[in-house]
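Annotated sample (chain length 334).
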Amino acid sequence: MPTEQLVHEHVFLGVDHQRNERRVWLVIALTAAMMIAEIAAGSIYGSMALVADGWHMSTHAGAMLITALAYLYARRQARNPRFTFGTGKLGDLAGFASAIVLALIAALIGWESLLRLGNPVEISFSQAIAVAVAGLAVNLISAFLLKDDHQHHGHSHGGHSHAGHDRHASGHHHDDHAGHSHHDHSHAVHKPGADNNLRAAYLHVMADALTSVLAILALLAGSIYGWIWLDPAMGVVGALVIARWSFGLIRQAGLILIDATDAVTDLQSEIRERIETPGETITDLHVWQVGPGHNAAIVAIATATPHPPAFYKEKLAKLAGLSHLTVEVTPIAA
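Output written by the structure step:
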C-alpha cells in the first residue's frame, strides 16, 4: 500500500475554532477601547469611579488574551508532530488558567467589598450609575459575540480508523502503520463539543456584566433610600456567584486535562453496547477527549471468532465524537 495512504493528521480543533478566535480578538479590542476611554475620561474629569472601572476591565481583557493566544497557538501548531494527539486540548489548558484568574478576580471583589462594608465610602451615584450602564452595554455585546451557539458545525476531521490485519508475536490483531494497515477515513458523526476556552472568555464578560447589574441595582437603591451599605453587599454576592462559575470551569477543564473518564462516560457505554456480545468481550477500554467534539479510543477485544479490526471499526464508525480509534483483537479458545 502506498505510504501516502498511511500518513494522516491529528487535527482535533473545534469545528468553530477560527470563528471563535476572531470573535475573541474582537471582544478584546472592544474591551480595550472601553478601558482606555474610561481611564482617560476618569483622569481628565477626576473621576475615580471611571478610572477604577477601566482598570477592572483591563483584568478581563488580559484574561481573554489567554483565550485568544491559545486559539492562535493551537491553530498554528495543529500539524506539529511534537503534539502526539494534536493541539485540541490547549483550549482546555487555557480555560483552566482563565478560570483560576476569574477565581482570583472574585476573591479581590469579595475582599474589597468586605472592606467597604466596614469602612463605607462616599459614592457619586449618578456618575457611578453611568459607568456601570456603559460597562454593562459593552459586556452584553461581548457576551453575544462569545455565546457558543453551535450554529456553524461545518465539516470536522473524520474518524481515524487505522484498520490493519497484522498479527504480532503476541497473537493480537491490532491496527498499525505497517504491513497491511491502511488509513480509513470513516467520517464519524461529530457533535460540536464544549469549548472550554471560549467558555472561559464568555464567563469573564458575564462576570463583568453581573457585577454591573448588581452595582446598578445597589446604586439606584442607595441614591433613593441612602443605603450605602447595599453597594458592597452586592459586591460580596457577585463575588460568590463568580467564584462558583470559576470553580465549575476549573473542574470541567481539569477533568479533560487529566483524561478523567467523567467527561466521556456516555461514549464508553456506547462503545461497549456496539461491540460486546456473548462471544466477544472488551478486555481493555480507554476513551479520552483530544479536542472540542473529538475523542480518541483504544479498544481491546477478546473473542473466540476473531474478525479483522476493520469489522469492529465499522460498528463504531457512526459514533458521534469518536475521531481517533485503535482496535486490538485477541483470539481466545472457544
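Annotation: Confidence is low (pLDDT under 50) at residues 1-5, 150-190.
Annotation: Residues 158-191+262-334 form one domain.
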